[in-house]
């Protein structure tokens, strides 16, 4: 705490540990990493305070640059992740990863290969959820990824665009 022109200024690292959970509960894991990553690299107390809030991370909106530079620094403590198919290759070394959700699957090209790679490098992975976005009539997914899973969930989100004929027939 410092006094500046009769104002009391409290710095983040002067706050007691008990206040951090109340502050961090309002932020997602990606936001916490963006806000506190560099400071936590120099301060082990802060790193230990934010670590419990990083166990689940939604990476589906993160850039490739962010995934290659920031994600590896916390790879040991990420237990659950949500990614797009484009980001699967960036999950190479997450040894603690237990659950994985892949969203916005528009194509199955190389999906089984990427899943196999993630499975071999994430030995604790036991749950996989694949959310397909219907843009085609047929998806072909090989079962070559050979991951010993306890939970496997497939879902398909369809887009329905009503035609004028449908509206006239069913609405009126």
UniProtKB/TrEMBL annotation:
Highest taxon listed in the record's lineage: Eukaryota
InterPro entries: F-box_dom (IPR001810)
Residues in F-box domain copies: 9-59
Protein name in UniProt: F-box domain-containing protein
Organism annotation: Rotaria magnacalcarata
